[in-house]
Amino acid sequence: MSGAELSEFNGIRPGDLITAYEKGFHRCLKILDRSDELFVTSDGVIYPSPLVVYERVYSQTGKPVSRNPNPLSCCITWCRKVDQTYLDQLTDEFQLTIDRVKNVMADFYG
To answer: pLDDT confidence of 35, banded at 50, 70, 90?
Structure first.
């Protein structure tokens, strides 16, 4: 039934801290079923694409932001739950970037 609230989708639940289409960190307020609107990936995989309603709580640098009375929303394909797995992946990506810059500097300066 389209428009019904979901209690969970792909590990994201209302109340979770997430990243979404807008920059920053957000609190998931609700997930709405849109089973009548299917998302097709470049590989041809078809799956339902729920709508996530959320509010921004921190900037992308981790600073608290003022509460906006108007919630934001986006397709759940843009969202990721912010948890230890997210932090581990982010740490790995930052370390890879640091290593690449070190290699560039070593190559450039000899």
So the answer is: confident
